[in-house]
Design goal:
It is a single chain. The chain is mostly helical. It has one domain (about 5-85): Up-down Bundle (Methane Monooxygenase Hydroxylase, Chain G, domain 1). The protein is built from 3 helices and no strands. The longest helix is centred in the N-terminal third of the chain and has 36 residues, at about 5-40. The protein is elongated, with a radius of gyration of 17 Å. The chain starts with a helix and ends with a helix.
């Protein structure tokens, strides 16, 4: 267990950050699932609109170091490629 005031504060901060990061990742995965359902239903326009929201969300997560830059780029490009194939 943490002993100093500073280390106790770091534990508190880590808990808060972990919650925020987990929530962000969960939202990204939820959007991805919805996009994949739209792709399966051959709804290109709906998928494109959701891809814009997905890209914005994933870019924000990348900016805040929740997701690595290359991972974000890979996920966006794979989804975009599948939408373009429709």
């Amino acid at each position: 267990m943490a002993h100093t005031h500073a280390s106790i504060k770091h534990v508190r901060q880590t808990k808060k950050r972990t919650l925020v990061n987990t929530r962000t990742k969960r939202e990204i995965e939820h959007l991805k699932k919805i996009i994949l359902k739209k792709i399966a239903a051959k709804d290109a326009t709906g998928a494109k609109e959701l891809l814009r929201a997905f890209s914005a969300k994933i870019d924000k997560a990348t900016k805040r170091d929740v997701i690595k830059r290359n991972t974000a780029s890979r996920r966006k490009s794979r989804l975009a490629k599948r939408i373009q194939a429709l």
